[in-house]
Amino acid sequence: AAAQETASGSGDGDKKITLGFSQVGAESGWRTANTKSIQESAKEAGFDLKFSDAQQKQENQIKAIRSFIQQKVDVIAFSPVVESGWDTVLKEAKDAGIPVILTDRAVDSADTSLYKTFIGSDFIEEGKKAGQWLVDQYKDTQEDVNIVELQGTTGSAPANDRKAGFQDTIASNPKLKIIASQTGDFTRAKGKEVMQAFLKAHKDIDVLYAHNDDMALGAIQAIEAAGLVPGKDIIIISVDAVKDGMQAAADGKINFIVECNPLLGPQLMEAAQAVVAGKEIDARIVTNETTFTSEQAKEALPSRQY
Ligand code: GYE
After folding, report:
1. Which residue is closest in CA terms to ligand 1's atom 8?
2. Residue 242: left (phi > 0), alpha (psi -120 to 50), or beta?
3. Looking at ligand 1, which atom is closest to the CA of residue 240?
4. Average per-residue pLDDT for the chain
């Protein structure tokens, strides 16, 4: 029996899985938490992780994926910076017999056999939750409500979907008007810069909808610098619920946050193990999420992990 155990111990079952992971970048608090979750989970699961940071550029991700194919990794995972333009490189991975898992952001490829699963949030749903809160807040308004929008990275799934879900939902009340909408690239610096421009161009902003906390935090700096009170003079809604965002909500500077969970590492390792073992897995793995008002943020803050 002992000999058998030794034999199976050195067999295929114990082979370290090599996972090539191409990350979007380090643009936000969400991304930092996501990267940490993936690195820690890979370590815990005993994977050999090849991690590559694309600095928000699709061309860098394509290069990283090609290099993973050349290195013959067991499985490739990536969070696609934008939705379009992946068919060629995904076909190359498929032809090389390497399974691909999408995490966090989706691609718009018509051929869904190019990847095994997509693990991540429903961004349309997040946009709808943001919109619904606003609809409820202003249900009795007689006046126009002027909204400015800070979009995420142009062409990314969360920017496209958070915009669409929000827009569709607020359309139920014609008084709710988006008067300006521009990308802030999901970063604090760009969020601040674009908000400054919005404030210069429009004297009558009632609401800011930011596609993530970091842009909202940058915008808060611009709003305060303009002598206005964030959360009062301008109502602020954002997405993510990272610690700094939750703190701003607890302080009353952000009025409503839609949660987007970055801790995708454990689910990714589980899915990677399954596909490498040749098992069938669900084509869509959705993460569980909630929303926070200022009061709820205050309560949740002490136990927040990221
Ligand atoms: O909301 C934002 C990050 O793709 C869900 O990317 C992610 C988004 C997240 O930069 O903060």
Report:
1. 158
2. beta
3. 1
4. 95
Which pair of structure tokens corresponds to residue 2? 């002992």
CA–centroid distance, residue 124 to ligand 1 (Å)? 13
Write the pLDDT tens digit of every residue in 231-287. Answer: 999 999 999 999 999 999 999 999 999 999 999 999 999 999 999 999 999 999 998
Buried-exposed string 113-151: b where 16+ CB fall within 10 A, e elsewhere? ebbbbbbbbbbbebbbbbbbbbbebbeeeeeebbbbbbb
Q: How far is the CA of 281 from the centre of ligand 1 (A)?
A: 25
CA distance 221 to 76: 39
Q: Is the CB of 34 under 6 A from ligand 1?
A: no
* Residue of 126, 186, 259 to mutate, ligand 1, most atoms within 8 A of C-beta: 186
Nearest of 87, 77, 76 to residue 109 by alpha carbon: 87
Q: Which amino acid makes up residue 134?
A: L
CB of 190 sitting under 6 A from ligand 1? no
pLDDT at 13: 56
188-201 and 213-225 are packed helices; what angle lies between their axes, rounded to 10 degrees? 50
Q: SS3 for 41-107, per residue?
A: HHHHCCCEEEEEECCCCHHHHHHHHHHHHHCCCCEEEECCCCCCCCHHHHHHHHHCCCCEEEECCCC
**ipTM attached to this prediction:** 0.98
pTM, 2 dp: 0.94
Rounded to an integer, what distance in angstroms lies between the CA atom of residue 44 and that of residue 269?
Answer: 9
Q: Are 95 and 70 in contact (CB under 8 A)?
A: no
> Is the beta carbon of 138 within 6 A of some atom in ligand 1?
no
Cα dihedral sign, 149-183-290-119: positive
Question: How far away, in angstroms, is 83 Cα from ligand 1 center?
Answer: 13
